[in-house]
Input
Amino acid sequence: MQALVIKGGGVTTPQGFKAGVAKAGIKSQDRYDLALVVSEEPAAGAAVFTTNKFAAAPVQLSKKHLAQGGFFRGFVVNSGCANACTGEKGLVDAFQMAQTAAGVIGCSPGEFLVASTGVVGVDLPMEAVRRAIGEAGNRLSVEAGSLAAEAIMTTDTFAKEIALQIELDGQKVLLGGMAKGAGMIHPNMATMLALVTTDAAISPACLQEALRRANDASFNMVTVDGDTSTNDTVVVLANGRAGNPLLEDTANPGFELFCEALKEVCQALAKMIARDGEGATKLLEVQVVNAPGPEDARKAARAIAGSTLLKAALFGEDANWGRIICALGYSGARFEPDRVDVYLGGLLVARNGAGASFSEEEAGKLLAKEEIRIVVDLQAGDAAATAWGCDLSYEYVRINADYRS
Amino acid sequence: MQALVIKGGGVTTPQGFKAGVAKAGIKSQDRYDLALVVSEEPAAGAAVFTTNKFAAAPVQLSKKHLAQGGFFRGFVVNSGCANACTGEKGLVDAFQMAQTAAGVIGCSPGEFLVASTGVVGVDLPMEAVRRAIGEAGNRLSVEAGSLAAEAIMTTDTFAKEIALQIELDGQKVLLGGMAKGAGMIHPNMATMLALVTTDAAISPACLQEALRRANDASFNMVTVDGDTSTNDTVVVLANGRAGNPLLEDTANPGFELFCEALKEVCQALAKMIARDGEGATKLLEVQVVNAPGPEDARKAARAIAGSTLLKAALFGEDANWGRIICALGYSGARFEPDRVDVYLGGLLVARNGAGASFSEEEAGKLLAKEEIRIVVDLQAGDAAATAWGCDLSYEYVRINADYRS
Output
């Protein structure tokens, strides 16, 4: 696909989207912790949410809004407080966030999707949140897109944004995205929030299917620490401003093109999340090839990327391929142990399930890099999958030892 | 049950068992790294093994020996090298360990069970191993039981031993056990090796059933880092020296007594493994009560004990109960989120799925202890389960960043 990356682009790069941010002072007084992203006209919406049984109040509310209608005016989000395990009050607070945002824009509360991220079990300071939503709503601009990406950060060390341009039926179509990640990152999904905006014209049903596919190949293939949070949310809003013929049939060739572009946006954000895993010093990419089926490839790639022991070995730049093999062995994937080859950054380290002779010096050089690619060849079929993760450092422990304080 | 703990006891406490150790110099020259535990007469044997598809050579061999016959003369084990992912040579080496041990004792190789623990993908130095087996076999003694527990250590910081005395049909019966744990500890099972000896008279089939039950309530409920190794092995040998009427029917009341005692030995060893998790500073015990079924209780307890985020919070002595709730939420257990109560060392920290008001000072005192007990009440039935784990410290990362070197 010919997707053009728009430098410095984000959620307000697609036509008709604006953002606004404010300081509600939820966890700290000195930073933006509230963001609104608004479409000038109703946008088709799709979303995927955490599978955690303790779904946070904003997750419950957004699910309800999504079930009630396919079109939305915007997304309101705060960081610093997850509004999870907050009982009835939490549900009321989440609704008030939607209601306040809707009041500023002039739409109904049901046209807003809501997300929160931060500490679990603490109530939102609603007076400050309402005030901040009002402020953010009164200063909507295209320029504030990057500030919105900043406002959703928690222990993230950099804001995560991307924008792409593609062509659909001769029309220029833009997609923009922002995400926050850092801790609690694990398939299905992560304390990760992501919002993707696009000016493509696409039906809500097609958008949901495109998101399902993109999510499976991106956010669901990222692991930082194996914990699936209460708040994971990925939202896509598509306002049709690009003027392409409406994508309303998954058999339309344009739909495939759109899916590819959405996957590219989501994978770019997913990799940024892995690279910025709490305390991470390295990005790990695990490709499993020649698996008997896609689920085998996915299970194997995720188990390897998620192995605590391997992650610690990578931090130490130790070519301990036994830990790759070990994680593969408990992944649940189907394969024959004596047919497995393992490559570390292109270097063959295990062949047919046993150690290959390789240069420790060369392995050391590959491990010293900031991006480490592991390829596992199962020689058992033709399915493949890629997962992303990071190393496990002292810093991860430090960050999580006193996250609340 | 009236089980008496024998101070300083271990695998040679039961009658008719002796041990011998030697230095094969596998990873270091200065320590015992090879042990033999031998019964004076054939002992009924039972074992459970890793579920990892890359089962190490000694695991494959021991499974075969177990399938061929129910009686054994001994157990031979080395540390420093896992003899895993070593292909055909690995299988030959494992067999040679059994053969050499059998030669010293005067029995057939099939009467030995074999285990190895250490680095994956490296061949055993067989000449040194054969010599060491010979040496260990020539100095068998009751006194060397504790040395055997030392010889199987890898990154363990203390040797793990226990012995109990019970009464079966008026006869004094002894059980002794040793284990190694430390890293790669996870249900089904752990890089953990354990050997339990007993002078009870019990049939191989009953012994296997007793071990299955004990293992499910002990080693399968311990997690250190979520990695299931290639070498996990738990062996029980019962030589009948106590002279109790043979337990050969699971309906025999004596069988239940024996099961309880075996469970007690295995749980004691499992807790030592958790307490000595790599880098651990605290032992974590998670009890899930009032679950709808035993599997729900087990899943919930294990997910909580295994949460990386919770483990880091415990290291930091942070009463972040949201992480307990979060792990429960993704555990797969059945429950109603708004009925869940959480206790931290007896202190109610969450009630009906939301935060309870509690004294942070009191919580801080409880978290400063070396043993932390979490109770989660699902209010959804009457099943219960207990899992053990430990905190995640800087030291875990340090140990695993350069394990091979």
